Amino acid sequence: MPDWLAQLTPTPATGPEPLAPATPTVAETDLPEWLKGFAAQPPAPSAPSAPVKTPFVGEQAPAPEELPAWLKDISSPQGAPPAPAAAPQALAEMPEWLKEPEPPAPASSQVAAPFVEPVPPGTGELPAWLKELEPSEAGAPRPGRFAEAPLPPALSVPEEAPPPPTPSEGGLVAAQLPSWLEALRPKELVPTSTAPKEEESAEAEGILAGLYGALPATTVAWQSLGAGISMRPEITPDDLARAGALQELLARGAATPVYREGTSRAQRLWSSSQRLFVFLVIAAAVVVSLLPGMSLGLVGMPELAEAGDKMYGSIDRLKPGDPVLVAFDYDATQSPEMDTQARAVMRHLSTRQAHVSVVSLYAAGPAAAQVVISETNRLMSTTVPFAANLGYVPGQATAVAFVNTAPYSMVIELAATPDTLRWWAEQLTARPGAPPLLAGVSAQAEPMSLPYLQSQQVKGMIVGIRDAVAYELKLGSVRQGEEPQTLAPLESIATANVALIGLILLGGLVQLVSGSGSRSRDGRRHK
Amino acid sequence: MIPGMPGLDIDLIGTAVAAVLTFFVFSYLLGDLPGLGPLFKFFYRLTMHVLVGAGVAYALIVAWWSILYPRVFLRLVEARATDNISGMGIAIAGAVLGVLLLTKGIRSLAPLGNISTAYLIGVGIGVATGGAVIGTLHAQSQATATFSSARSVPDLLLLFLGGLGTLAVLASFTFTATGRKGLGGLWARVVQVISVFGRFFLYIALGAAFAGVYVAGVSVLVGRLQAILPLVLNALARLGIWQ
User: Fold this and answer.
1) What is the pLDDT along chain B (243 residues), one digit of tens a residue?
2) Is residue B180 part of a domain?
C-alpha cells in the first residue's frame, strides 16, 4: 500500500470523528430534556476505533420504544461482539441503539462507509412510501429501493468483511484495497483470480486500457442509440467478397510496362534496322521520282473531282474587287502539303482580282500565309499586294463565331485538321446569311470533312496534293514543259505507295514464314 | 544577297539550314546504331530544341503584335483619346482577366485565375454547343435522312448504306446487360447484332483515316525532299558527282 494511501487508513487514535459532538458545548439550558441527563453523567469510555453509525446532526434520535422491530434487529446483529465489561452505568439510560457497542473495527475496509442512511424515526411517523419499505417479516431487513441498483465499484460498500490479511514471506501484510482502488490497478498486474468479470467491459485502448467500468455510461449510450448499432457488426459474405476484390486490386498496384531483360543488343539492332529499312525504301521511292528524268510514269494528268470543280467554279465567278476571306489554318509542319493547295487557290484569286483578307486560327498560321502571299506576288508580278494578312485570331471556335463574315463574298478554309473546318462549318451554318464556305483540306482531314461537303455546308473542296495539282493544271498556270515537274510530287507519292504495298506484302510473307516456323517448333516441343 | 558578302544569298543559307535540320530530324532513325547512335540522337534533340524554342519565341511575338498591342494597348489609348468609357472598360476588363489567368501558375494565387478560366469555359461551351447542335447534329442528321438528293439507284443505295452505317455505329457504342429475359433481352440481342455491323463500319472508317494520315505524312516528306533536293543536287554537281 502506498504511503499516501496508508495515511488514509483510520487508526484508533485518529479515527473519523463522529459528526455529532461528543462533548456538549452548548449551554445546558439549550439542551433538551432527554439530553440533560447525559450531561450530568461522566463521560463515556472512548468508543472503539470503528466508526460509529451516527445520525446526522440535527436529527432527533428516536426513543428505543419507538424503534421498529426491524431496526432493532439491525442495531443488534447476532454476530456482534459482546459489550465491553467496563460499560458505564449511564449506558443503562441510553437508548438501545446507543447502548449497543460498536463492533470492533479490525478491518480497515469499514472505513469506507461515509454514506449511511439515517435511522428512520418511529414507525408511527413514517410516511406511506417508507412504510412500504418495511420488511415483510420481522427480523429480515428488507433491502431498500437503492439497494437493487448496482453501485459502481467506487461507491459500493462491502457487505462482508474481507478475510484478514495473511502475512507474506517478507513479513509484510498484503494490503486490502477497496474495490474501487482495485479497479485502478493496471491490467498486467491484476491476478487472474481477482480479475473482474467480462461483463464489466474493460477498456481496450487509450489511457484507460485495462480499467474495468471506467466508462460505465458508454454501455447505456450505445443501448440508447437503438438496436441497429452494434460495436461488432456482422459482415456479410458479399461484403467480404467485395473487400477481397478491392484488396486484390490495391495489392496489384499500377501496371508498369515490363521490358524484357533478355533482349540482346543484336535483337535491338535488328529491330531498329527494320525501321531504318522501311524508311530507306520509302525515301528512295520518293527521291527517285523527284529526280529529273526519273519519272516512272505511274500517274497521268489528274482531273478535278466534282467537289473541286465546284470550288473552282465558285472562285472563277468572282468579280474583280469581291472581298474574300481566306483562313490559313495550318502551321509549318503541314505546309509542304497545304502550301500546294494555297498557292493554287491564291493564284486563282489573284487572277480574279479579288480583295483577299487572310486570317488564321493558328498562331503560326500567319507566317505560313505570308510565305504563300509573297510567292504569289512574285509569280503574278504584282506591285500592289492583293492580300491583307490580318494575322492570328485567338479563340478557335469562339473566334470563328465573332469574325464578321458579312462583308465577304466567300470564305475559303485551308485546313490541315478536320477540327478547324468543323468550327467554320458549324458557325457559318448557324449564322443566317453567311457567305458560302469552300475548303482545301489535307489528306488526313478528308474522311472527317466529307460529311460537311455532302451536307452542302461546304460548297466545294479540294483534297491533298493531287487535287492541288489538278487545280493548277485546270487553272493553266503550268507552263509548257513544266508538267513533269508539276506532276513530280504525285509521282513520288504514287511510288511511295507502291513501295509501301511491297513492304506490306514482304512483311506478311516474313511473318507467315516465321510464324509457321515458330508454330512447328512449338509443336515439336509439346510432343 | 548579303551586303559585303557577294555570292551568298540569304535564301540559299536558309535552304541550307533547313536541309541540315531536316537531316538531323531524320537522324533519329539512326539513333540505335552502335557507335554513332548517341550522336544522331543528339542531333535530333538539338533540332527539337530549336523547333520548340523558335516556336515559343514566335508565339510570344505574335501574342504581343497581334493581340496585346492592337487589342488592349491601342484600344486603351484610343478610348482615352475619345473619352470612350465603355471601350476603355472593355479593354481594362480583358486585360485584368488576362492578368488573372497568369496567376494559375502560382499555387497560392491560383484561385484568382478561376475567374478567367470560368469566363473562357463558359463562353467556349456556349459557342461550341450552339454550333455543334445547329451546324453538326441537326445538319448532319438532316443530310443523312434526306433521300431527295438521290438521283439514281446507286445514290439511293449509298444513302441507305450511310443511314444504316450511322445507326449501326451508334449501336456499337450501346452497352446492354446480357442475360435478361423478355423484351429487354430481345432488344439486347438486336443491339448486339447491329453493333457487329457497326464495328465493321468503324473498321473501314479507321482504315480510311489511317490511310489519310499516311498519305499526308508522305506528302510532307515529298514536300521537304522537294525543297532540299535542288540544293543537294547543286552541291553534288559542283563536286562532279551529279550532272
Assistant:
1) 556 666 667 777 888 888 888 888 888 877 777 777 788 889 999 999 998 999 899 989 988 988 889 888 998 999 989 988 888 898 899 899 999 998 988 888 889 999 999 999 999 999 999 889 998 999 888 887 765 666 778 878 887 888 888 889 988 887 766 667 788 788 888 888 888 889 999 999 899 888 888 888 898 888 888 888 888 888 888 888 777
2) yes
Report the chain A residue with the minimal C-alpha distance to residue B54.
Answer: A364
In a domain, A11, yes or no: no
pLDDT computed for residue A405 by the predictor = 86
- A497 Cβ under 8 Å from any chain B Cβ: yes
How does the average pLDDT of chain A come out, rounded? 70
Taking CA–CA distances from B159, the nearest residue in chain A reads A454
**A46-81: burial string, b at 16+ Cβ within 10 Å, e else:** eebbbbbbbbeeeeebbeeeebbebbebbbeeeeee
| A426/B136 Cβ within 8 A | yes
Query: Element (H or E) spanning A489, and its range?
Result: helix A483-526
Q: Smallest Cβ distance to A286: which of B140, B212, B225?
A: B225
pLDDT surpassing 80 at residue A391? yes
Q: Does residue B53 form part of some domain?
A: no
- Find, among A37, A49, A28, A160, the residue nearest to A94 by Cα: A37
Contact A413, A327 (CB under 8 A): yes
Q: Quote the minimal CA–CA distance from A272 to chain B in Å.
A: 6
The answer as to whether B91 is a domain residue is: no
Closest CA to B48 of B85, B82, B21, B69: B21
What is the pLDDT, as a whole number, of residue A225? 47
Check the CA dihedral A223-A227-A229-A232 and report its sign: positive
Output the domain CATH number for residue A465.
Answer: 3.40.50.720
Q: Residues A242-261: what's their mean pLDDT?
A: 65
Best of A294, A337, A497 to disrupt the B interface by mutation (most B CBs within 10 Å)?
A337
Whether A401 contacts chain B with CB within 8 A: yes
> Is A17 inside any structural domain?
no
In this complex, is the C-beta atom of A465 within 8 Å of any C-beta atom belonging to chain B?
Answer: yes
pLDDT at A116: 41
B220 within domain boundaries: yes
Of A495, A410, A421, A408, the C-alpha closest to A463 is A421
Chain A: closest CA distance from residue B227 (Å): 9
435478361: which residue's cell? B180
Residue A227 in any domain: the answer is: no
Number of domains in chain B: 1
Residue A208 above 80 pLDDT?
A: no
Comparing alpha-carbon positions, the chain A residue that sits nearest to B34 is A269
Domain ranges, residue B240:
152-243
Q: Which residues of A touch B127 (CB under 8 A)?
A: 397-398, 401, 427
Whether A279 is in a domain gets the answer: no
What residues of A are in contact with residue B139 (Cβ under 8 Å)? 429, 455, 457
The structural domain count of chain A equals 1
> Of A269, A391, A427, which is closest to B66 when you measure between CB atoms?
A391
Please give the residue of chain B at the shortest CA–CA distance from A268. Answer: B32
- Of the candidates B129, B217, B66, the residue with the CA atom closest to the CA atom of residue A361: B66
B212 to A391: CB separation less than 8 angstroms, yes or no:
no
Handedness of CA B33, B38, B39, B45 (dihedral sign): positive
Q: Which of A415, A226, A271 has the alpha carbon at shortest distance from A337?
A: A415
Task: Report whether pLDDT(A352) > 70.
Answer: yes
The CA-based angle A425-A428-A430, given to 5 degrees, is 105
* Total count of residues recorded for chain B: 243
Most confident of A136-150, A314-328, A505-519: A314-328
Judge whether residue A95 has pLDDT over 50.
yes
